[in-house]
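Model: You mentioned two targets. I'll fold them one after the other.
Researcher: Yes, keep them separate.
Model: Target one:
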Amino acid sequence: MDPLLIAFGFGVGVMVGMTGMGGGSLMTPLLVLLFGVKPTLAVGTDIGYQAITKTVGGFKHFKLKTVNFGAVIWLALGSVPGAIFGVWVIRLLTRAWGDDVETFTLIALGAVLALVGIITLTRSLLFPEFRSSEGQDHVQLKGWQKLVAIIVGVVTGFVIGITSAGSGTVIAVALIAIFKLPPRFVVGTDVFQAAILLWAAGIAHFASGNIDFGLMGTLLIGSIPGVYIGSNFSVKVPESTLRTALGVVLIASAAATLTKAEVPIVPNVLIAATAIAFITFLAAMKRGKLANPWKKGADQDELLEAALESEFGTGPRHSPAAS
């Protein structure tokens, strides 16, 4: 039993509980790059580990009443079959390519990590106030919202089945953009639906022999308390600094993963990712949308109101009594 694995499990668990992100995006490359686990085995083991940790986190958010079950159902209708299909594709490629499928998995993982890192940085730096302006806990879903949710679920489920990475970021953005969920419901809904998706993918990977239960058990020793602790802070701690740091780490992980896969375009990928991150940072500064991560409560409300006023020409809302 490696104490370092337990420590990594705890850290990733806290991240997942607080933000709904970081499970596969951090743990799979750590297993591959630092501990020398085969990519397909790392993906399958990580998915099994995530299924349990996100079940713990999902139960905690269920108790906190921060889960929108309408969004969960429509996303799961796409993500569950998408994940199973992704695992099936890996199984077919293994039969056709043999050990070369490990290189394919590394390349796919590196590409997803780079994309997720860029999305994370963009959301954190350029759109710190990107959230529902309606503030409703539950919304009456329209037909187009249900259809888009299923499509998003299929795509993210397929990517998860192959790489185990990316669900937290993509689904979180979808929950805000499609369902207009307020911030406190985004993490809870994301974690709850991810648990469903990951159990489906985990069972499929188990059937394919891609799970190391000893390794998974070691990770769980640290991650279960980490997720529980992180979930308690999800509605209290500002996330802008955490998301920015995570975005940088994901881009670095993408570069390291692609380097391990001996992809010759790694320098170009690094240059492109760095340029996008830098442009995003400059644009955020120019538009005055860099959030102060140390401001809480009323200060954050003032930041949001100022951003809305500059973007849409709307100022703070005052009640008649206040007038």
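Model: Target two:
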Amino acid sequence: MSPASEIKVGAFVLASAGLLLGGVIALGSGKFFQDTQTLETSTRDSVDGLQVGSPVKYRGVPIGEVSAISFADRLYPSSDGGEEFDYASPVVIRMKVRAEVFGSQQSELFTKDIERGVEQGLRARLRSAGLTGGLFLELDMANPVEHPVAAMTYHPDFPFVPSAPSQLGEVIAAIERITGSIGNIDFENIGTGLKEAIASINRDIAPKLDTMLGDANRLIKELEKTNVMLQARITDPRVDTMLTDAADLTAGLRTTLPSAIREYGAFGAELNALMSSEEYEIRRLLSAMRGTVENLERVTERARLDPPQLFFASPPRKLAPGEIDAGASKP
């Protein structure tokens, strides 16, 4: 056998062995015996990293793989027959999934099951397999209010699952909103206002600030002097003596004050009794003193009105016992 024939035979054997091994692996995986259905979704996000054969998962469980990636404009040409490409056309992704995952294997019932899931929030979302991995397609439940079904310009050939924005797309959209909000801020007017405010502060407050600083310096110096005087008073030995005397005085008062209070109470009681016994005599004394004062007033009045009569008149007649001078009451 020639060398060329040997090479051909060897290549045939290797190819046969490879096909046999691939068949065994395929039979072992059971792909040839799985009934699959085709689903379809569309997105306007970038699908860079997604390719035919990429996994399709439902809540992290592998259920199929991507079977086709194209544009809606190419898969569903417009009815007017135009051949111009629609640059706004979304990307259509078709996937083959195991039929038993979503219910019946019959195509009519399968479509109804998918439609029911879409009403409840079934959405397709692009996910990253990791920092260095590619993209895969994940089906999951989402809030149908936050992610409504968008209006479509074509009628899909397969059960359709609407897409939801990818996490990266949501982050980029949030950054774009923040950037747009920052762009709407009028930094020029804000800067002008700040400059005017600073100039006004410098114009109005700077002169007062110098005066305030001078007053503060004087206050600090006075406080220093006061502190020195206070330290001198505190360290004065006489302060300790005064405190000791005050303590001794307090202790003495605590000892003598109760007895003094008792003695004062007894003295008050005796004085009260004495005043009660001498009350009548005091009243007589006061009455006599009142009469004497009245007589002095009459004599003073006569001296003022008729001084010669007071000094040169004959003495009054002596009254008999029990007789009352009729003119005594006259001034």
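Researcher: Noted. Anything on target two?
Model: The CA atoms of residues 305 and 331 lie 9 Å apart.
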